[in-house]
Prior knowledge:
It is a single chain. The chain is an alpha+beta fold. It has two domains: 2-95, no CATH class; 99-152, bsu07140 like domains (CRO Repressor), CATH 3.30.240.20. Helices cover 60% and strands 12% of the residues. The chain is built from six helices and four strands; from the N terminus they run ααααββααββ. It has helices at 2-28, 39-56, 63-86, 88-95, 109-115, 119-127, and strands at 99-103, 106-107, 137-142, 148-152. Strands 2-1-3-4 form a four-stranded antiparallel beta sheet. Helix 1 crosses helix 3 (63-86) and helix 3 packs across helix 4 (88-95). It is elongated and about 70 Å long. The mean pLDDT is 85.
Amino acid sequence: MAHTFRSLAIVAGSTTVIYLFLIALLRLFGRRELSQLTLVDLIVVLTLGSAVETSMIHGDVSLPAGLTSASTLMIVNRALTWLFGRSKRLRHLIGGGPVLLVHDGAPVYSHLRRVGMSTADLMEAVRGRGYDDLSTIRFAVLETDGEVTVVPREHS
Length: 156
């Protein structure tokens, strides 16, 4: 019985470490709206899941190990959500802040590169908000949730 508890504790620990590692890794590689995921992005996400699966359960393919890993993911996620709700600094560290993509009708290329967006991605996002010409946009911002907010220029 003690061995089972110990092995499940190892599964919980491995799951927690891998979850936090993936959050940090994904934070480094930018953010996109779920609807903006390309086929390559989707393949990367699916492959990441497959790549870490065995490590998360520490090679133990039993039902208790799977349930422990799934429960740990849910508990750690809930704890992080709670912490983000109470710590603006932590929320900004993990989620980042809004990123200016268009300023006075011109793309901010250095910011696009930083968040991993191409000009085509930007145009797709602004077209999705009803704008087909950047010159009509005062600014566009990539929000922390991956949505692009567009503010039009005021007409005189």
